[in-house]
Amino acid sequence: MTTIRLTAAQAMIRWLSRQMTEEDEPFIAGAWAIFGHGNVAGIGEALEDAKDSFSTFRGQNEQTMAHAAIAYAKQLGRRRAMMVTSSIGPGATNMVTAAALAHVNRLPVLLVPGDVFAGRGPDPVLQQVEDFADGTVSANDCFRPVSRYFDRITRPEQLLTALPRALRTMTDPADCGPVTLAFCQDVQAEGYDWPEAFFEPRVWHRRRPAPDPREVEAVAQMIRAARAPVIVAGGGVHYSGACEALARFAARLRIPVVESQAGKSALPWDDEWNFGPVGVTGASSANAVCAEADLVIGVGTRFQDFTTGSWALFRHPDRHLVSINVAAYDAMKHGAEPLCADALAALDALAAALGDTRAPAPRAGLKADWFAAVDPLTAPPPGAGNELPTDAQVIGAVQRAAHADTVVMCAAGTMPGELHKLWKAPRPGAYHMEYGYSCMGYEIGGALGIKLAEPERDVVCMLGDGSYMMANSEMATAAMMGVAITVVVTDNRGYGCINRLQKGTGGAEFNNLYASSNLANAPAIDFALHARAMGATSVKVADIAELEAALARRSGIAGPYVVVIDTDPYPSTPHGGHWWDVAVPEVSRRQEVRDARASYETQLKERG
Fold first, then answer.
1. What residue numbers bound the domain in which 489 lies?
2. Are 461 and 446 in contact, with CB atoms under 8 Å apart?
3. How much is the pTM?
4. Are residues 557 and 502 in the same domain?
């Protein structure tokens, strides 16, 4: 057997660089890295040595550079992924939030935090977490519950099994998610004689599990018997590449399609059978067909509470549930009839089994009524005035500036609900929302990842001042890399979304908007100046007309472009939507809370 002597870190990078996709591209598109004493000497040296064949990107914060890596994989439909490495201690635990985000959203990312010395000679090392009862524990054990696969590398030869297991997890559609390889820092630097065969290029094929014929027939019988079926499209439609198949299936069987946050843009907004966004932030058209549905067919959705209206949306007394999902865990939720398979394979199999089956046409006029209600909300304000614009009006301005190659993206706060309801996505991939974990701070790093994944796309990141304050450092990274993203910051001077929820559950305005916080001085933050200090081109606009003019200039600007506009923190789209189960206190001195509790108990009884 021919061998080559490399350190464990060098072997890892060499092996990763030779794992290929079916399109003959490296599956791992490079590494995001912040170096510290737990990874600079071992992994850092290996990345420098391989810099001509394996790209390294320097981030500003471990969490947000991991967000960039995750967004990269999401935008590419999980066909490629990235590695992220940090030092031990706080550098590693900074990535735990990102790991949880990837885990919830079923997105691949390879996290390689440095770890303590396997040999334990210098224990306790700087930043080592010492467990008084377990000598094997380090800070990296925090990754265990938020990793699909976790391993601690305490010997170089363990990589011979750990690395293939990692890639198997990341490329498996049913098990896809974050992988953590906690890499002991002394082991990174240790030499080993590796079999040269270990580094031969390998192609990782995307598995497309076929459905069980018995499950296909069971679901087909349910569809034949249904009088009012509806399809709930989730993120799995995108990851399976099943958008066109879903459009054909829905049109052929005359079944309305509604879209979760992850599923939005599976069908163009103006497709005849796209009845719009569903659930708590859904359209009245979508929620109406769901309320009347006797058969709910989930395709690639995990049935999150925002999608199901906390399971109060589907009100038909004889309602049945079908779940088409590649993961058995999701296919069996809430007593669903499972069709455990790849979404594209399942839809094709069902189409063949159903033949000329046609569902009764849904109630006419639902879509027209929805757009008649909400289109005026996104229209330019009539005439000049001193009123602050609403988020809906900001969305309207961005929509009018968008084109076929625009990707609008967001993650948390007010904008996700407003975008879900109001954004008109023209094609798959035009809407990128991280709402599985609703993670504030995903936005700027995520926008950077999207643009790296698809450089030809026009990426527009929309976020509030709260998210901007929470994680803005990758703006500097985008500027240093010359990556052109457009960031629209809506400044409502606090956490406007949660302030509305606080009021909606009977609470007094408290600690969300700056005006209701215990602050000696309410801040007046110049976000445009701050972004400019990090290297972005920026502008503060006074109204919707100036916003549209600023957006029209974005194609001529190199690097990140930030447009800031003050908005009203109180209004939201009054149409559509659905009840969301947010527990209201049973006991309170406030009459408003007691009233909200009474309403809450009524809703619980109606849900049953």
1. 378-566
2. yes
3. 0.97
4. yes
